[in-house]
Design brief:
single chain; 439 residues; alpha+beta; Heat Shock Protein 90; five-stranded mixed sheet; four-stranded antiparallel sheet; 58% helix; 15% strand; HAMP_dom; cell membrane; HATPase_dom; two-component regulatory system; membrane
């Protein structure tokens, strides 16, 4: 329970955590020094100094008590108080009601306790003036007031030591943080390069810093290079196979065109299905070989997709264009291909579709929703996987495919560092597909 509470209130950033690691030990060390050294050492010195002054105070009290009357007591005290540097007043009339110790006085209680323990008949002690000590003592001739310098009973004010500790602690913390920041900077650069790669951008990154950080950076570069080679190999394989198969399919179509139409009609449909599958493979391959990032207005992409759909008579409307029209970094061709796939998928299983976009400071959200049968919640994750067709959920009679439509859209979203979300359309009742991209 305690560890969970600490975890909830721990800083999230690496710089803040590094600062906490630096500052916390310094503060704990200063507190330890303050308690052990200042409190005990200064109290011990104060007790010794006050014990020495108690001897002089007892001598003055004994001198006053030994005089026959008040005048003789005053005369006797006046002869010895100046050499002892103690002001005397007999009888005293300005006695305070209780001992006075300022709350910032670290050794005041020790002074009063030692005075009362070493001198009998102490009435009150006042430390209101931090530079003086005033004590009232009962004598046979009335209250005796003694006033002497605070330096005689207390060690030097420990505030100077506290100030030195705080200043030096802050200085050493700043120096340590400066050096630590140089060690953390390569980690932040590697994190930024990894985040850019997750958004489809390959940024220049050179491992620097400590040996362990350099090793992590080299491992990241090796991983990124392997992923790039794997992606290129997959793209080349799919595009090569799909392209090479078009030649024999073209020869088949040409040969079938020379035969009787009634006899070869089923074979022509098979060839068309194969061509449609090849087109799907090529689209899937092109989803990895995306275009370069460009300054693009998201609303213009939605408008272009709507115009294309309207031109061919598709039942598509724009539901909303929310947010700023400032250009953002996108791959326009890939986004348009993804939106086209979502629109075609919506119209394949529904009678109408709506498309829109919302732009905020933190994210860009494209969406397409339809009035079709939708996809059950427990099958939506499978629907995004390549080569998966959910015919039972999406009405097989509306069309056939290779099961790559949503997978292509998901790949386009991932190359932008985003995600494809599938949910139920609250407006049309069918499927709602959202492409959410972080900015």
């Amino acid at each position: 329970m305690v560890f969970r509470w600490i975890k909830n209130y721990m800083p999230r950033g690496i710089y803040a955590r590094a600062a906490l690691i630096l500052i916390l030990p310094v503060i704990m060390l200063q507190l330890l020094v303050s308690v052990v050294f200042i409190q005990r050492h200064f109290e011990g010195v104060t007790e010794l100094m006050t014990s020495a002054v108690n001897i002089e105070i007892r001598f003055l009290v004994d001198t006053a008590n030994g005089a026959p009357d008040v005048e003789a007591a005053r005369a006797a005290l006046s002869r010895i108080d100046a050499p002892l540097e103690i002001l005397t007043e007999l009888p005293a009339t300005d006695i305070v009601a209780a001992d006075i110790v300022p709350w910032v006085d670290l050794t005041g209680n020790s002074v009063i306790a030692e005075l009362r323990a070493g001198v009998a008949n102490v009435i009150q002690v006042s430390l209101a003036d931090r530079r003086r000590v005033v004590i009232w003592i009962e004598t046979v001739h009335g209250p005796l007031k003694l006033d002497f310098s605070r330096r005689r009973v207390s060690a030097s004010n420990p505030h100077q030591l506290l100030v030195i500790m705080v200043v030096m602690g802050a200085l050493m913390t700043a120096i340590a943080y400066f050096f630590l920041r140089n060690q953390l900077r390569p980690i932040k650069r590697m994190a930024a390069a990894a985040a850019d790669y997750g958004k489809g951008r390959i940024t220049r990154f050179t491992p620097t810093g400590a040996v362990e950080v350099r090793a992590a950076g080299m491992a990241f570069l090796d991983m990124r290079n392997r992923l790039e080679r794997q992606t290129q190999s997959r793209t080349l394989m799919l595009s090569g196979v799909s392209h090479d198969l078009r030649t024999p399919l073209t020869r088949l179509r040409l040969g079938l065109s020379m035969l009787d139409e009634d006899e070869v009609a089923p074979l022509v449909r098979d060839v068309e299905d194969m061509e449609r599958l090849l087109d799907g493979f090529l689209d899937f391959a092109r989803s990895d070989a995306s275009d370069d990032l460009e300054e693009t207005v998201p609303a213009d992409l939605v408008q272009a997709v709507f115009e294309d759909a309207k031109r061919i008579g598709q039942a598509v409307v724009i539901s909303d264009l929310k947010g700023s029209r400032d250009p953002v970094q996108l791959r326009p061709t890939a986004i348009r291909r993804a939106l086209d796939n979502l629109v075609n998928n919506a119209l394949r299983y529904g009678s109408r579709a709506e498309i829109g976009v919302s732009v905020t400071d933190r994210a860009i959200r494209f969406w397409v929703e339809d009035d079709g049968p939708g996809i059950p919640a427990d099958q939506r994750e499978d629907a995004i996987s390549p080569f998966v067709r959910l015919d039972l959920a999406r009405n097989q009679n509306r069309g056939s495919g290779v099961g790559l439509g949503l997978s292509i859209v998901a790949d386009v979203a991932r190359t932008h560092g985003g995600v494809l979300r599938l949910s139920e359309s609250s407006k049309l009742g069918g499927l709602m597909a959202e492409i959410v991209l972080g900015r």
